[in-house]
Each structure stands twice: as C-alpha cells, then as structure tokens.
C-alpha cells in the first residue's frame, strides 16, 4: 500500500479509499443491491489486510446502516486511531422540516447521530455531501467550524459542486477565521472528465486533496459496454449520469479493454491507474462487492501508463453535460 497526505494537512491516508455505500441493510434506504452485515464484514477485513486505512461513508447510505456496519467492523478489527473515517452530511434522513440539508440545526444533529452509529467520539473527515441552495454558506461554514472546535471532526471536506461554489465557501471560511475544506470528493473517471476544466485546477492551486467518487464509472469501465450487473440495472443515479453520451462512452470503454488486453491485466486496473495518476488525486474511492475488486484496486497502484496509452484512453472522450451536483 502507498500512503499520501490529504491535501496540505498532515493526515496520512492510504491511496485507495474503501467506499462503504455498497454495505448496508438492503431494505433500508434507496439501494436494494447493498450487502448485509455478515456479507460485508469480510470486505473490511480484507481492506485492512491490504493496508487500506481510509474509509468513506455517509449518513444517508442505507438509512445510516452503512455507518453502523463500518463502526462495528472497526471496533472489532482494529484500534480506532489506526484508521481514517470519513462521513458526509446533507441527504434527507427523515421526512418533514430539518430532516436534511446543511442548516446549523441539521449539521449539529447529524454529526451526533453519525458518531453514535459509528461508535466513535470523532470522525477524521466530515464532508458536505452536496451544496445546500436553501442555507447561507456562512451558516454552513460556521457550523462546520464549530463541529471541528468541539472535537467531533478533525477536518472538513466537500463533495460535488460548481467550482465557484467551492471557492466561495473557502473564501467565507478564510474571511471569518473558520475551518477551511481540505478535500474535494468529486466525480472523476475516464467516462466523466468535466472536473478537469475548473474544479481540479482550483483544488491544485489551493492544495485541496482530491478523493474522486465513481472512478470506475459504476463498474462500466470494468466490463464490455453492453454488459450489465445487478447494481447497474437498479442504480438510478448511474443510469442518469452515464446515459447522455452512449456512443462516445462505448468508445472509451472499448479502448480501456484494448489497453488491458495488451497488458494482460483487468480493465479495472487500467481505468483506476488513469485516475490515480491524475495530478492532485490522493485516493480514489472504490466500491467493492467482490474480493477481486479490492485486489484490483491495490494492484492499480503499480500500473504506470505510458504516454501513448494515456492518449489512447483519453482521445475518444467527448464533453458531457455537467451532472451529479444535486
């Protein structure tokens, strides 16, 4: 395993982050394809055996059960101080007023609920899952600052939003002497590269670490374009994001297959190697529903693509509509 600092912080994280949306009680939440706790536990064990110390979840994943699974696994398997736990806030957790979003009321309530489910007194990285258009950013940043000062989070991060929104949030924090975001969890893969235009250059300039989500495009980069899986057939977000440019995307997937075949390695290693070697990327967040997914992710750290291979992979890409911010 390789380790890196998260942005300009002193926090060391594994260069592979295990995303925990895959693990949760199937009847709870929006994802019926999630793995129950008994099935999920070996993935936490394998990740730790491989040297992964960075785990990402969210309060909204499977109605909180993802946090519960992760918290119990860490308690049973490893000392708390040896892992980096990241979770997120924004998604609706209950109907009615104040059941979601980034108001001060929601943030203060949800951090306590997340800590209870995770079985810890702090998270290492507390992230806003999306931008809240209904709450002033000053209210959001001050609340997050207070969460840090209360010792409930070590650092704060953000996820998919427009670059101008992220810049505004950082400026508000700096102007008021509040805690700034140290990481950006954005959407980046060979099938979605719109973040290269503004967000990634902004983060590089400001020393913000990138921890991309869906680096394998919901698995579409790991198999032929016309193949499917149980998740892809029920994943509404994936259907929406990867339905806008099917011909162009199919061409990219074919090129991933060609490079993988020439090297004699799985497609997943090629696609993930491309993300890992993008400037500013600290740790892609990978989902794993098979043990081989973890093994391929770690093996991708050793794959160094040539300039010709990168050109082959990138030149078929066509501009996409900006998606995934809401």
UniProtKB/TrEMBL annotation:
Q: Which residues form a coiled coil?
A: none
Q: Which GO molecular-function terms appear in the entry?
A: oxidoreductase activity
Q: Does the keyword RNA-binding apply?
A: no
Checking SUPFAM superfamilies in the record gives: NAD(P)-linked oxidoreductase
Recite the UniProt keywords alphabetically.
Oxidoreductase
Q: What EC number(s) has UniProt assigned to this enzyme?
A: 1.1.1.-
- Presence of keyword Oxidoreductase: yes
Q: Which InterPro entries match?
A: AKR, AKR_Detox_Biosynth, NAD(P)_OxRdtase_dom_sf, NADP_OxRdtase_dom
Specify the domain of life of the species encoding this protein. Bacteria
Q: What CDD domains does the record tag this protein with?
A: AKR_EcYajO-like
| Enzyme class of the recorded protein, top EC level | oxidoreductase
Domain NADP-dependent oxidoreductase as annotated: residue spans: 15-317
Protein name per Swiss-Prot or TrEMBL: Aldo/keto reductase
Organism of this sequence: Marinibaculum pumilum
């Amino acid at each position: 395993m390789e380790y890196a600092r998260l942005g300009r912080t002193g926090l060391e994280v594994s260069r592979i982050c295990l995303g925990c949306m895959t693990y949760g009680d199937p009847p709870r939440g929006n994802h019926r394809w999630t793995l129950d706790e008994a099935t999920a536990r070996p993935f936490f064990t394998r990740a730790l055996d491989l040297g992964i110390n960075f785990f990402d979840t969210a309060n909204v994943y499977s109605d909180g059960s993802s946090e519960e699974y992760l918290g119990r696994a860490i308690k049973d398997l490893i000392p708390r101080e040896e892992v980096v736990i990241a979770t997120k806030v924004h998604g609706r957790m209950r109907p009615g007023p104040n059941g979601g979003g980034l108001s001060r009321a929601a943030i203060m309530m949800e951090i306590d609920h997340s800590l209870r489910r995770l079985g810890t007194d702090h998270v290492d990285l507390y992230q806003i899952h999306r931008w809240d258009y209904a709450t002033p950013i000053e209210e959001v940043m001050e609340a997050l600052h207070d969460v840090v000062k209360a010792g409930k989070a070590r650092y704060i991060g953000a996820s998919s939003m427009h670059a101008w929104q992220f810049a505004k949030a950082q400026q508000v924090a700096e102007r008021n002497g509040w805690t700034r975001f140290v990481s950006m969890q954005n959407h980046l893969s060979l099938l979605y590269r719109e973040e290269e235009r503004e967000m990634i250059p902004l983060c590089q300039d400001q020393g913000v670490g990138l921890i991309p989500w869906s680096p394998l495009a919901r698995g579409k980069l790991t198999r032929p374009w016309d193949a499917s899986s149980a998740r892809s057939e029920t994943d509404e977000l994936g259907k929406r994001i990867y339905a806008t440019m099917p011909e162009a995307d199919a061409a990219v997937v074919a090129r991933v297959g060609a490079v993988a075949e020439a090297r004699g390695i799985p497609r997943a290693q090629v696609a993930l190697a491309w993300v890992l070697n993008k400037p500013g990327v600290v740790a892609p967040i990978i989902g794993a529903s098979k043990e081989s997914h973890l093994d391929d992710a770690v093996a991708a750290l050793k794959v160094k693509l040539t300039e010709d291979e990168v050109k082959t992979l990138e030149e078929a890409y066509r501009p996409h509509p900006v998606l995934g911010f809401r």
